[in-house]
Design goal:
This protein has about 600 residues and is of the alpha+beta class. It contains 16 helices and 18 strands. It has four domains: about 230 residues, GAF domain (Beta-Lactamase, 2-Layer Sandwich); about 110 residues, Beta-Lactamase (2-Layer Sandwich); about 70 residues, Orthogonal Bundle (Helix Hairpins), CATH 1.10.287; about 160 residues, Histidine kinase-like ATPase, C-terminal domain (Heat Shock Protein 90, 2-Layer Sandwich), CATH 3.30.565. Helix content is about 40%, strand content about 20%. The strands form four sheets. A six-stranded antiparallel β-sheet has the order 3-2-1-6-5-4, with helices on both faces. A five-stranded antiparallel β-sheet has the order 8-7-11-10-9, with helices on both faces. Strands 13-15-16-18-17 form a five-stranded mixed β-sheet. The structure holds adenosine-5'-diphosphate.
Length: about 600
């Protein structure tokens, strides 16, 4: 007899008929079989609980679906009611978050509304509450007289008597030793049929059946967790920027995320899962990599593959992406290879910068050598001229060339030092002064005339152009770079013009606060797709028109950084074959914070 079961004095236990026992035995055997089946499924679910990433081959046992659980629970409820000869049967489960006990569906002898009426807080008084809290079984002989049944309002659900047992879920280790016991709810049967009363034998039976019920419920919970984990994992895989493909040992696709589809040019709606990878993937390079990874058994393959992404209207060189394809073996719980995973990482930018750096070293060497060769040539000529073959004007011309070549070397070295300083993230040292931009422009154009035999260099500034707060050397460096580029990239000549403008104030009565400088040429222009890149350090447009023109690819990166150092902005407008204009906007006055 359960310890806290009040047995009314004088109540006799009726002698059950032998046939009833026979019946019950058969039911129990059936249930035991169902239980074994369930436990096998639970073991499976447990084994795969932590490794939902592990691909299981199509031959392995699939997890039971929620529909199957519902059916199993329904069968269990019906059988329990039948075995206990009860009118009603219901599982109440503990909701940890809400601290309540709620009735699960399906139940026997209740409609859905009645089931919601059964819900109650754990801390309240009641039959369900007491069984759950004390973790021991209870017989309610007369619901009308029992205060706990009254508190739970069982009479309004036409409940007269009951057996209630705790639902305990056991966690066991591999040797079947119980590691943990958790009470997850209460199992009730109500109203003994044929006017009978529940007895201690019913309690024993129900406790046994409750173990099976708990197994079903644990299995359902585990199923929900497994499904949820799987969903979370799938969402993560889907939202990965890197491409991901998983292939099982049998060569069938287990996973291909949207990025991988985009890289391989596979329509996002084509169903691929379970298809042989060799059929789904047409790219032979990737097929080879996967085949090698699958056969090696201990794959750690990493290869670089270039793909041309489909995107009409853009030059092919801009659609090429380089991916590092890394494969790794996926293992099951026992450490045996279950398949492979291939990850596609986009390394286009890394390789691009590496390529640009290599090109940079060779162009810088070239850029340094050219003026040095010229300086050395003219000095050697002058030194060898012992008998004054060259007249004074010619000698002066040579000195002039040596002087401007030295300036060129100086500028180049200064640019290199500045860009490396900026690249290291060192703050730009600004020597603020009042700068007359018109005078700076005149000086820069005068210095650049040495390189511009076929060009007209002009400037156009309105009268009373304001003096601005700026670093004079850096202003010179910005204009020199842009005017020099304008000359270099218009090898056929043409006009190079520096135009100044005061940008009108936003509201009347206010002082204008910005100036705009426009450095325009009539040269080769810049193709549209290169425009966003030209500000990157080391970037040079590589095409037929400018292959012969020297340069390091740091000039514009420097112009941008120096302009921004003044609190300004730099933009470009260009049309191939027509010309280019760089637009710089500078504040007339230094920002307050910078002054501080
Ligand atoms: P570089 O040392 O190669 O001139 P820059 O950083 O100054 O490097 O310029 C980057 C690239 O932008 C150049 O290689 C060139 O292709 C392009 N570019 C710059 N200015 C002009 C211009 N005025 N006209 C045409 N192309 C230009």
């Amino acid at each position: 007899m359960p310890q806290n079961t009040p047995f009314p004095s004088g109540a006799n236990e009726p002698d059950p008929l032998p046939t009833v026992y026979e019946d019950r035995k058969q039911y129990i055997q059936q249930l035991e079989r169902a239980n074994i089946d369930l436990e096998q499924r639970i073991q499976y679910a447990e084994a795969h609980h932590h490794v939902t990433t592990t691909p299981h081959s199509p031959q392995s046992v699939p997890l039971p679906s929620p529909g199957e659980f519902e059916n199993t629970l329904k069968r269990l409820v019906d059988k329990i009611a039948k075995i206990l000869q009860a009118e009603k049967c219901v599982f109440m489960l503990h909701d940890i978050g809400a601290a309540t006990l709620y009735a699960t569906h399906p139940a026997m002898g209740f409609d859905r509304d009645e089931l919601t009426l059964l819900e109650r807080r754990v801390a309240e008084e009641g039959v369900s509450n007491e069984v759950f809290r004390t973790n021991s079984s209870l017989i309610t002989y007369d619901a009308a007289l029992d205060p706990r049944a009254a508190a739970e309002g069982l009479s309004r659900l036409r409940i007269h008597n009951a057996v209630s047992v705790p639902l305990v879920v056991e966690k066991r280790d591999e040797d079947n030793r119980v590691l943990e016991r958790t009470t997850v709810g209460v199992l009730h049967v109500f109203n003994k049929k044929y006017g009978g009363i529940f007895v201690e034998e019913d309690v024993r039976l129900l406790e046994q059946l409750a173990r099976q019920g708990a197994a079903v419920i644990a299995s359902a919970q585990m199923y929900r967790e497994v499904v949820q984990e799987k969903q979370e994992l799938l969402h993560t895989i889907d939202s990965l920027y890197a491409g991901l493909i998983m292939v099982g040992n049998n060569g069938r696709l287990l996973q291909m995320n949207p990025s991988a589809r985009a890289i391989l040019g596979i329509n996002s709606t084509t169903p691929l899962i379970d298809m042989p990878y060799a059929r789904a993937i047409s790219d032979t390079r990737i097929r080879k990599i996967i085949a090698a990874a699958l056969t090696s058994g201990n794959a750690e393959v990493a290869e670089e593959v270039a793909f041309t992404l489909p995107d009409a209207g853009v030059e092919e060189q801009f659609r090429e992406r380089i991916y590092q394809v890394q494969c790794a073996t996926v293992r099951d719980d026992d450490g045996a290879p279950a398949g492979i995973v291939a990850i596609f990482n986009d390394i286009t930018e890394i390789r691009g910068v590496e390529r640009m750096k290599t090109a940079f070293i060779s162009t810088v060497s070239h850029e340094l050598r050219t003026p040095l060769t010229s300086i050395k040539g003219f000095i050697s000529t002058l030194l060898a001229d012992n008998d004054n073959y060259y007249d004074e004007p010619t000698r002066r011309e040579f000195y002039g060339i040596i002087d401007s070549e030295c300036d060129r070397l100086h500028r180049l070295i200064k640019d290199l030092l500045d860009i490396s300083r900026i690249e290291q993230g060192r703050a730009m040292q600004m020597n603020w002064a009042s700068v007359n931009v018109v005078q700076t422009t005149e000086k820069v154009l005068a210095a650049q005339r040495a390189y511009a035999r076929d060009h007209v260099l002009t400037l156009d500034f309105p009268p009373d152009f304001p003096v601005i707060d700026a670093d004079p050397d850096k202003m010179d460096q910005i204009l020199t770079n842009l005017v020099n580029n304008a000359i270099k990239y218009s090898p056929q000549g043409g006009t190079v013009c520096v135009t100044g403008q005061v940008l009108s104030a936003q509201s009347s009565g206010e002082e204008p606060s910005f100036i705009e400088l426009r450095i325009s040429d009539e040269g080769m222009g810049i193709p549209r797709e290169h425009l966003p890149k030209i500000w990157d350090r080391f970037y040079r447009v590589d095409n037929r028109d400018n292959r012969e023109i020297g340069g390091t690819g740091i000039g514009l990166a420097l112009v941008k950084a120096l302009t921004e150092g003044h609190g300004g902005t730099a933009q470009v407008e260009s049309e191939p074959g027509v010309g280019t204009a760089f637009l710089l906007i500078f504040p007339i006055h230094r920002a307050e914070t910078e002054e501080a």
